[in-house]
Amino acid sequence: MPMTVTGTTDLTHRRAVLDTAMQERGAWPARSPWIREAVRTLPRDRFAPDRLWRWDGHAYVPVDRQVDPDGWARELYAGPDDAAVTQVTDGLPTSSLSSPGVVVDMLDSLLLEPGHRVLDLGTGAGWNCALAAHRTGPGRVTSIEVDTGLAAAARARLAQAGLAVGVEVGDGAAGWPVGIPFDRVIATYAVERVPWPWVEQCAPGGRIVTPWGRLGHVALTVADDHRSATGWMQGLAQFMPARDRSRPEPAFAEVRGHGPADHRGAMERGLEPLRADWDLLFTLRVTLPAVRITTAVDQDGTSAWIHDGLASWAVLSARPGGATVHGGGPRRLAAELEAAWRTWETHDRPGVYDYGMTVRPDRQYVWLNDPDTGPRWPTSATADQGQAVD
């Protein structure tokens, strides 16, 4: 006997559980009470496709609403910090319904008001732009999606919800020059550099909220002279990158290759903070923008594998009180990591909220504590070994 689609009662219960979990952790923002009401009116299950994807420890496997309605609902409402993967391409996730906590936090950072014209970049399933449209009113939100199939499906869901949102197919990096300026710009995918068209298409005094570097998001205010945008980091979260035609980011093994290590050394500190100290990890993301770090724990402690995506790599193998190091390539990544770690300690261990970003036509950078006097680091992933800029 075939199973039926998840019932309304079950979804109602799961919505209530999520609402309570958000309330208990203080995740419903006091300055934006409209967001909670919008989420209740437009729950995420109204925008989720009938197939989600779950990681089973080895690969992403489909969870179909018709076949496993309870599993589908659990995947969609796993918790405030859990995204639901909605598309997998070549074994890798390429679209998702972002976690409720992140969606709410970013919309709160947007400081959205009724009547604002909004450019939403990365339509996905359409939930984010639906919530924005609930706040701004009919015809005020334009959403850009590079995937024609996702755009068509989102367009249908938005229409079914009675929301007048323009969904266009295009490259989000180019923005949408039709009908500018926008009062607000929000992206739902991570960028390494904020595309300048986003600033050009946002009105002076307007606000841009975007994930940066797949580890946090920033809220920028466009200057009155329209020649820059500046603002503070808003929180930590991991985001999918923009989809483009560049080759996928190489894995450690690809950079490492098969040759012998050409330098060895030691690190006289434990590596446990590289697993869970998000203030340190965000700082390393700022100061060593091209470096990728992977960790694992065994009986000897925490070990790390790091690479720069090009030709330099290092393995930091745990030992009592520190780690042995061997690596290869032109850069000494373990030494750079140690120097950046010490700099973080020298600056009193700053966290994500101590950093901000400035975007100009010719350059952009992340700064610490003060946009004018604080140390700065370029945002480009190809920046020279994470050195501060003037």
From TrEMBL:
Region named Disordered: 370-390
Protein family membership: Belongs to the methyltransferase superfamily. L-isoaspartyl/D-aspartyl protein methyltransferase family.
Kinase listed as a keyword: no
Entry's localization field: Cytoplasm
Keyword set, alphabetical order: Cytoplasm, Methyltransferase, S-adenosyl-L-methionine, Transferase
Protein name in the entry: Protein-L-isoaspartate O-methyltransferase
Coiled-coil annotated spans: none
